[in-house]
């Protein structure tokens, strides 16, 4: 038995919660992962996992072994990454998750500068507004907007995104411009609403003005949970919408959208880079995080509201 391989398989089973997901993450047949765990338990002469047809749970002895194995595997990977980087620079696979608008407008256009520095890193970019399970889906890090509610993740605050409120000229011709946020909840106006893929609930618009904070659940005809589709609905005149400044600026410049509710601002939303604390960051992940932090720091229009309505 290869103890290192068996240890790695055990750690992945604990993190993903199933043999099937662990096998997928490791690129091995499920039977091979099962056999490795059985051999490891026989070698240690202790039960590490309780297995039923529906779930896998860790025994107290298994949890102790998991914590120590995680530390040892992390140290080995750290050593390998350090030696590899010193010889030839960071390389390997890096799995990243990000929303559609951030991927399309910020991340992908800047990636040539990343590859100019680190040509041996292969990025797998998952593009979705869905909140994925980083451990179960074998994701190294993710860019997420809004508060991070999963306290098990390490969250690096990148900044607070500036949001603007706007509508299309077609919408304004039919309904006029709202003069107060509460009008968005009445019969004269409509909003394009966004619902959380995690909770299924529609997100209210939170306004701020001179220290005043106002939360409005607008009247909506259409609710979406993907940012590019949400933008398309606003451009089609289906309601008042709010989105990050960097998303809206080209459409405001072309006249396809017009800012509304002068003086009121949607509350800024924090942007985080998150990753599992139990996963030792490899050299590729570390340089990507450093590069991404530099990228967002160089884009002041992400965070500042310094243009008139």
TrEMBL record:
<dbReference type="InterPro" id="IPR005119">
    <property type="entry name" value="LysR_subst-bd"/>
</dbReference>
<dbReference type="InterPro" id="IPR058163">
    <property type="entry name" value="LysR-type_TF_proteobact-type"/>
</dbReference>
<dbReference type="InterPro" id="IPR036390">
    <property type="entry name" value="WH_DNA-bd_sf"/>
</dbReference>
<keyword id="KW-0804">Transcription</keyword>
<keyword id="KW-0238">DNA-binding</keyword>
<dbReference type="GO" id="GO:0006351">
    <property type="term" value="P:DNA-templated transcription"/>
</dbReference>
<dbReference type="GO" id="GO:0043565">
    <property type="term" value="F:sequence-specific DNA binding"/>
</dbReference>
<protein>
    <submittedName>
        <fullName>Transcriptional regulator2C LysR family</fullName>
    </submittedName>
</protein>
<dbReference type="Pfam" id="PF00126">
    <property type="entry name" value="HTH_1"/>
</dbReference>
<keyword id="KW-0805">Transcription regulation</keyword>
<dbReference type="InterPro" id="IPR036388">
    <property type="entry name" value="WH-like_DNA-bd_sf"/>
</dbReference>
<dbReference type="InterPro" id="IPR000847">
    <property type="entry name" value="LysR_HTH_N"/>
</dbReference>
<feature type="domain" description="HTH lysR-type">
    <location>
        <begin position="1"/>
        <end position="59"/>
    </location>
</feature>
<dbReference type="Pfam" id="PF03466">
    <property type="entry name" value="LysR_substrate"/>
</dbReference>
<comment type="similarity">
    <text>Belongs to the LysR transcriptional regulatory family.</text>
</comment>
<dbReference type="GO" id="GO:0003700">
    <property type="term" value="F:DNA-binding transcription factor activity"/>
</dbReference>
């Amino acid at each position: 038995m290869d103890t290192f391989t068996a240890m790695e398989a055990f750690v992945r089973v604990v993190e993903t919660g199933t043999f099937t997901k662990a096998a997928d993450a490791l690129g091995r047949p499920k039977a091979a992962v099962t056999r490795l765990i059985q051999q490891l338990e026989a070698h240690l002469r202790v039960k590490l996992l309780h297995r039923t047809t529906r779930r896998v749970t860790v025994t107290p002895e298994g949890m102790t072994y998991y914590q120590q194995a995680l530390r040892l595997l992390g140290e080995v990977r750290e050593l390998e990454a350090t030696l590899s980087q010193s010889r030839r620079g960071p390389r390997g696979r890096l799995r990243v998750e990000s929303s559609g608008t951030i991927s399309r407008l910020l991340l992908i256009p800047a990636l040539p500068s990343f590859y100019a520095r680190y040509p041996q890193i292969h990025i797998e970019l998952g593009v979705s507004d869905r909140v994925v399970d980083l451990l179960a889906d074998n994701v190294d890090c993710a860019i997420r907007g809004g508060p991070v509610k999963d306290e098990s993740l390490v969250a690096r605050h990148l900044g607070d995104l500036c949001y603007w409120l706007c509508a299309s000229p077609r919408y304004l011709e039919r309904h006029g411009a709202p003069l107060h946020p509460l009008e968005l909840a009445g019969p004269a106006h409509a909003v394009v609403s966004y619902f959380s893929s995690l909770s299924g609930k529609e997100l209210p618009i939170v306004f701020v003005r001179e220290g005043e904070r106002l939360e409005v659940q607008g009247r909506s005809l259409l609710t979406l949970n993907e940012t590019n589709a949400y933008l398309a609905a606003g451009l089609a005149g289906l309601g008042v919408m709010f989105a990050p400044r960097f998303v809206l600026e080209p459409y405001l410049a072309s006249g396809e959208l017009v800012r509304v509710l002068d003086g009121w601002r949607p509350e800024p939303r924090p942007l985080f880079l998150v990753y599992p604390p139990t996963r030792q960051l490899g050299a590729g992940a570390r340089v990507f995080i450093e590069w991404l932090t530099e990228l967002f720091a160089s884009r002041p229009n992400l965070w500042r509201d310094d243009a008139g309505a």
